[in-house]
Amino acid sequence: MSTPPLRHSFAARFEHLLSSYPNPVSRRRYSDAEIAAAIGLSKTAVWNLRTGQTANPTWETIHALAEFFGVTPGYFFGAAEEPDAELRAAMADAGVRHIATRAAGVSPESQQMILDVLETIRRRESGDD
Question: pTM of the full predicted structure?
Answer without folding.
Answer: 0.59
